Amino acid sequence: MSDSGSHVRQLRQEAEGLKEQAERATDPQERQQLQDKARRLLAQSEQESAMAAGDIYPQE
Fold this sequence. Notes:
Number of helices: 2
Largest sheet: none
Low-confidence stretches: none
Radius of gyration: 14 Å
Helix content: over 70%
Shape: elongated
Strand content: under 5%
Mean pLDDT: 87
Structural class: mainly alpha
Oligomer: single chain
Number of strands: 0
């Protein structure tokens, strides 16, 4: 797999780990921060995946 594919996979794994941490977090603010970061990483991974597939192009 290409470097971009492995980076996308890494982002998704990191997001999954953050989701799991959020589920275990007892502090609501910390839980929200972890969930938000996980969502951002998933969005980034989806964008990079689409760019690698040639579906979208980065904004100039």
